[in-house]
Amino acid sequence: MTRSVATHSSWTFLTNHAHVLIAVARRPDARVVEIAADVGVSTRAALSILRDLEEAGYLTRSREGRRTHYEVRPHQPFRHPSTARHEVDGLLELLGP
């Protein structure tokens, strides 16, 4: 019996932080509301995650006119000790643009 992915919404393999990072890699000029919609979180949650990722050095933020531009910083290690020897670049290559 095959189960649909939609029926397994109680957990996912990737965190919302990973999904936001992937969304930024795909569309660096996306507005926060668009990132939130892509990931399936509230705008407030997306802002919080973006702040976390920026503070941890995974992305940078700059203003271009009235828009915010996000840029993923390459070669950053995963945060979990069991995967820290790997860089997030591999994840972005696999699931990114």
Q: What amount of the residues lies in strands?
A: 5-15%
The CATH architecture: Orthogonal Bundle
| CATH class categorisation | Mainly Alpha
SSE sequence, one letter per element: HHHEEH
Q: Would you identify the regions where 5 or more consecutive residues have pLDDT less than 50?
A: none
| Beta strand count | 2
Task: Give the radius of gyration.
Answer: 14 Å
Mean pLDDT over the full residue set = 89
What is the CATH third-level topology name? Answer: Arc Repressor Mutant, subunit A
Structural class, judged by helices and strands? Answer: alpha+beta
Distance between the termini: 33 Å
For the biggest β-sheet, the strand order reads 1-2
User: Mind summarizing the main beta sheet?
Assistant: 2 strands, antiparallel
Total helical elements: 4
Provide a descriptive summary of the structure in words.
α1 (16-26) packs across α2 and α2 (32-39) packs across α3 (43-55). The protein has helices at residues 16-26, 32-39, 43-55, 88-95, and strands spanning 59-64, 67-72. It is globular, with a radius of gyration of 14 Å. The chain is α+β, with helices and mostly antiparallel strands and 97 residues long. It has a single domain, classed as Orthogonal Bundle (Arc Repressor Mutant, subunit A), CATH 1.10.10. A two-stranded antiparallel sheet has the order 1-2. The termini are far apart. β1 (59-64) and β2 form a beta hairpin. It contains four helices and two strands.
